[in-house]
Specification:
Elements: E1 17-19, H1 22-36, H2 43-56, H3 59-68, E2 77-83, E3 86-98, E4 101-111, H4 120-134, E5 139-145, H5 149-157, E6 160-171, E7 184-188, H6 194-204, H7 210-213, H8 224-232, E8 238-244, E9 247-255, E10 261-268, H9 274-287, E11 293-299, H10 304-309, E12 312-323
Parallel strand pairs: 4-5, 10-11
Antiparallel strand pairs: 1-2, 2-3, 3-4, 5-12, 6-11, 6-12, 7-8, 8-9, 9-10
Helix pairs in contact: 1-2
């Protein structure tokens, strides 16, 4: 089995570092994450922190989590740094599966402001790397905000390299009237749009990181059988296309969410007209005005201005990084 090839690190047995103890550490880790990321945390992040605190008080969940820590895609595994009986550092590990291979995402690397510049983040991250190696992970990933160059440099020093940059957008509530410009047509997605839609989806959400989004593109396909399947699993979905100059520019799919936001999936031609994308997002936003906030994760680049002018605010711009030598 092939896997990532980071230089082998020493085994870390630092007195202040230990594995995360799910039964007692979750509330303290939640407090630390909230403190460290208080200026950048979005609504989904706030919900995540609240869920962590609730989970720490749920005995049934804690019993289940202790058995499932390395098999479910949740941050139930990791390492903490403790001084004077206070957790001041954390690094979480989230396991995923990709074609039968283990994939780990390092997340929630946080150090209390009073304890920074002591190498704690480095040691915790190195231990997380070793944890993934010991479990024969095929790939190891992390992401970091693009306005945190210090952390990005640390991860590069530890053997990670940049794979892509992505922006997480959230819809705003003040969408006003926005007539579709002449020359553009917005309509429901049609059967003949699917081949291009799938090709563009796989470029926007490439297979290397598709495990993170946990979405099956086959559910977006047309056809009675697929419609019946979605009906049986009670999955609502809406899809729209935008045309201009006698060609398809983009397809947008809405799927319901179960948190504070719902998902949009944008499939756009490489040379899509930004005005067409803007109009498509605005039309969908008006139709979805009664729903919760819409969340769009999309590669940073030429369409940023169109997405923002359509009424979406960037909440995070993330650099996705992969351990050098990871299976491609």
């Amino acid at each position: 089995m092939t896997g990532f090839t980071l230089p082998r690190a020493a085994r870390f047995t630092h007195d202040h570092m230990r594995p995360l103890n799910i039964t007692r550490d979750l509330p303290s880790v939640a407090d630390l994450i909230e403190l460290c990321f208080n200026t950048t945390i979005d609504r989904d992040g706030q919900r995540y922190v609240q869920q962590m605190r609730r989970a720490g008080r749920d005995n049934a969940f804690l019993r289940w989590a202790n058995r499932a820590a390395d098999s479910v895609s949740m941050p139930l595994t990791g390492y903490v740094w403790e001084e004077d009986k206070k957790i001041v550092g954390n690094a979480s590990l989230i396991p995923f599966r990709k074609k039968g291979q283990s994939v780990y995402l390092i997340a929630n690397v946080a150090v209390h402001p009073d304890f920074r510049r002591r190498g704690i983040a480095r040691i915790l991250t190195q231990q997380a790397i070793q944890h993934a190696r010991d479990r024969k992970a095929g790939q190891l990933w992390l992401n970091v905000r693009d306005d945190n160059p210090g952390a990005a440099n640390l991860y590069q020093e530890l053997g990670f390299s940049e794979h892509s940059r992505r922006t997480v957008w959230l819809s705003q509530s003040d969408l006003g009237p926005a007539p579709v410009p002449p020359g553009l047509t917005i309509r429901s997605r049609r059967r003949e749009h699917w081949p291009l839609q799938r090709e563009w989806l796989e470029k926007a959400y490439p297979p290397e990181i598709a495990w993170y989004f946990n979405v099956d593109w086959r559910n977006f396909a047309p056809g009675f059988r697929r419609w019946l399947y979605l009906l049986l699993i009670d999955m609502d979905m809406r899809q729209w296309s935008v045309f201009g100059d006698s060609r398809l520019h983009a397809v947008l799919t809405w799927t319901p969410g179960y948190g504070s936001s719902e998902s949009l999936w944008l499939a756009a031609a490489p040379d899509a007209d930004p005005q067409a994308v803007k109009s498509l997002l605005q039309a969908a936003g008006r139709e979805l005005a009664f729903r919760r906030t819409q969340r769009l994760d999309f590669p940073s680049g030429p369409l940023d201005e169109a997405i923002q002018s359509a009424g979406y605010a960037p909440t995070r711009r993330l650099i996705w990084m992969r351990a050098d030598g990871a299976t491609r």
